[in-house]
Amino acid sequence: GETVKLCVDFNYDPSETGSDWFHGLVPDFGYGWDLDNFNPDNIESVPSGATWFDENDPNCFPRTSRSVPLLCTYRDKYNNLRLCNFKCEVCPCSTGLRQISTSSGWFWNTPGGQGCGVLCPSLSYGLPRNDFEAQNIRLCMTLKTKSILKINNDFENLDLKISFNTTSMSITGCWDKIRLLIVH
């Protein structure tokens, strides 16, 4: 039942991938966190503007805009949608992510060009940047651990792990659509 403030700082540098703007941060919370009262909108972000998009939103859910062979999604024993990265962990799913809904997460959305004006993750750009400069990202949130009553002798409920998968606008944004419009 303890409350903690957790901050994540990282440097996003896609200089070897070209102009690929940072777009989102998809968290994976361990089962020891009490997420029943978690407010994903109560965060601090630098740059500002991080918005939570939920996988269950029928109008504006996060999804991939192309196939991603290193990622897959699966439902855990509590029916939560989880995103798994083959490069970082052993995944209980076996196929790469194919233009489907991803787990909920925070996204920095910038209005795009033709066909990309809506501020849903899949219809927007990410954070604008200079192609030759890395970008510092900071996200702070308040979390609460499960109380001893909710742990209920299930040792999995002691897991306070938290990890993040990052996305760029070419994975979850509208970048692919713009490129197709330009080519055609």
Provide a quick synopsis of the model:
The chain has helices spanning 148-151, 169-172, 175-183; strands at residues 3-12, 22-29, 43-46, 51-53, 67-68, 71-75, 81-85, 97-98, 105-107, 135-144, 162-168.
Q: Overview of this structure, please?
A:
Helices cover 9% and strands 32% of the residues. It is mostly beta strands and 184 residues long. Strands 4-9-2-11 form a four-stranded antiparallel sheet. A hairpin with a 5-residue loop joins strand 6 and strand 7. The radius of gyration is 17 Å and the shape is globular. The model is unreliable at 176-184 (pLDDT under 50).
SSE diagram, text form:
Layout (H helix, E strand, L loop, with lengths): L2 E10 L9 E8 L13 E4 L4 E3 L13 E2 L2 E5 L5 E5 L11 E2 L6 E3 L27 E10 L3 H4 L10 E7 H4 L2 H9 L1
Antiparallel strand pairs: 1-10, 2-9, 2-11, 3-10, 4-9, 5-8, 6-7
Structural descriptors:
184 residues; mainly beta; four-stranded antiparallel beta sheet; three-stranded antiparallel beta sheet; 3 helices; disordered C terminus
